[in-house]
Design the sequence.
């Protein structure tokens, strides 16, 4: 069923849906109160499904609107003999003797080497951690989370990224930690390098599975376990050694039923109010954008939603950006345009997003310019994506400061001020914000092409100067972003001041 068809049927069912909203809201509220739970959307795209032969790994990190993020660069380190300590539980792990340099998106209130969310290291490996998911109740009864000292979101990037040289190695290391130390929560983690993308999901406290994303397909998740098929001894699959036998032993999988092993059926969660209105609608909208004419229906037969799809048309960077900004625009489901949106479905782009990122890997280019993190602080629908190259060795001032209180110097808070003002009058201000940031992104793309041409001309003969080119570009493009953002803040504030004046003018004749 297409988007227009579902709109018509949704309107007819509106009264019925609204009667359920109160009950659903309570369930969703309980979930949102859990620390950073049910909070992200992930999109992974193979290089044969894209317009430029790039791999894309994208995720929105949604938590609290005031929760500042710090984007930092960790230089390479040698002779490390310390111990990593989690800030959220008792997990510890030895630091690597030789630590690779890497970038990290971290919470404002954590140690500078915890709670990493996204990064690229000097070996050309990227990681996004984590997509929060719920593992199955029955699986957790027999293999619960190790909540006191298991591996968790707080620890994954900063333990793994400094020491791995391939995406597969990252999967294997994280998998081994889950097996031996246990996981303290359910999560999905993406790994990317020049050979492709791997995605790992937990199944319980010590069970996990990972899949190499098919090169001609894409994958999307909205806070639910999505992996299904598992083929042992196949190079495109990795898993805990007892994944299937454990499921058989505890009745999570019954081979006598005649069906092949299904990871989601054995270890995942199907149905429920949160899945119906909060999780799967995001998967549904992405798949119907990239594959118009798909017959799946929103909130119906979610087990029939394909795990992997070949898009009808090749996917561009701009397509990925648009998906991470999606809020059901153009439909009665859009919560920012409609006071009473049909279905009250959770959109991909929400105001409480703290950062959105897209990792682009172009295998045919040197890693320094072929691998880029596109970073957007706050709500992606009301912001631009700023390019940061893997070859950069410094991040300009302002990206690593800010707390949960507004400040003038923090780039996070500069972005949030624009977004807060725009939310006060979405119908008028959204287009103003998008026009300014779309122009910024178009200009940055031109500057990127010039940088990459210059880099390729000199990087072999003069690597030091080539690095300087990248660092100078980062300073220029972030300065441009800051200027655009400051102008937007003043423009929106001026318009709001005038509107308030007109409402409370009290002028004599």
Sequence:
């Amino acid at each position: 069923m297409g988007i227009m068809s579902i709109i018509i049927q949704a309107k007819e069912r509106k009264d019925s849906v609204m009667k359920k909203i109160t009950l659903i809201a309570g369930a969703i509220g309980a979930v949102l109160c859990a620390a950073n739970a049910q909070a992200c959307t992930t999109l992974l795209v193979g290089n044969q499904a894209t317009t430029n032969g790039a791999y894309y790994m994208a995720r929105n990190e949604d938590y609290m609107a005031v929760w500042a993020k710090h984007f930092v660069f960790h230089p390479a380190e040698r002779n490390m003999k310390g111990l990593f300590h989690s800030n959220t539980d008792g997990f510890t792990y030895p630091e690597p003797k030789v630590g690779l340099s890497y970038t990290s998106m971290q919470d404002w209130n954590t140690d500078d080497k915890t709670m990493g969310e996204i990064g690229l290291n000097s070996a050309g490996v990227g990681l996004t951690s984590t997509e929060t998911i719920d593992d199955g109740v029955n699986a957790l009864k027999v293999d619960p989370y190790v909540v006191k000292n298991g591996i968790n979101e707080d620890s994954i990037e900063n333990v793994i990224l400094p020491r791995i040289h391939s995406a597969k190695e990252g999967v294997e290391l994280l998998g081994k930690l889950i097996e031996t130390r246990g996981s303290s929560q359910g999560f999905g983690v993406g790994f990317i390098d020049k050979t492709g993308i791997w995605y790992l999901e937990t199944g319980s406290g010590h069970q996990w599975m990972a899949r190499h994303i098919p090169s001609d397909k894409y994958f999307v998740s909205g806070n639910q376990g999505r992996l299904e098929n598992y083929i042992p001894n196949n190079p495109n699959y990795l898993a805990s050694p007892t994944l299937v036998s454990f499921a058989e032993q505890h009745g999570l999988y019954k081979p006598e039923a005649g069906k092949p092993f299904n990871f989601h059926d054995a270890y995942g969660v199907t149905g429920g109010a949160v899945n119906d209105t909060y999780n799967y609608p995001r998967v549904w909208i992405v798949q119907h954008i990239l594959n118009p004419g798909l017959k799946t229906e929103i909130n119906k037969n979610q087990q029939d939603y394909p795990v992997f799809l070949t898009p009808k048309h090749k996917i561009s960077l701009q397509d990925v950006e648009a998906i991470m900004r999606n809020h059901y625009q153009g439909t009665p489901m859009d919560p920012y345009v409609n006071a009473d949106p049909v279905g009250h479905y959770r959109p991909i782009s929400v105001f409480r997003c703290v950062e959105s990122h897209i990792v682009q890997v172009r295998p045919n280019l040197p890693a320094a310019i072929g691998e880029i993190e596109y970073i957007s602080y706050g709500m992606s629908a009301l912001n631009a994506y700023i390019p940061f190259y893997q070859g950069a060795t410094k991040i300009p001032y302002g990206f690593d400061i800010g707390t949960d209180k507004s400040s003038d110097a923090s780039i996070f808070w500069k972005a949030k001020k624009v977004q807060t003002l725009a939310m006060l009058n979405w119908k008028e201000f959204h287009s103003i914000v998008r026009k300014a940031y779309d122009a910024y992104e178009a200009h940055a793309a031109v500057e990127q092409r010039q940088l990459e041409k210059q880099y390729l001309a000199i990087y072999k003969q003069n690597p030091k100067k080539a690095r300087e080119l990248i660092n100078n570009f980062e300073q220029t493009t972030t300065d441009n972003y800051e200027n655009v953002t400051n102008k937007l803040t003043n423009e929106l504030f001026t318009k709001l001041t005038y509107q308030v004046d007109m409402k409370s003018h009290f002028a004599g004749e």
About this structure: The mean pLDDT is 92.
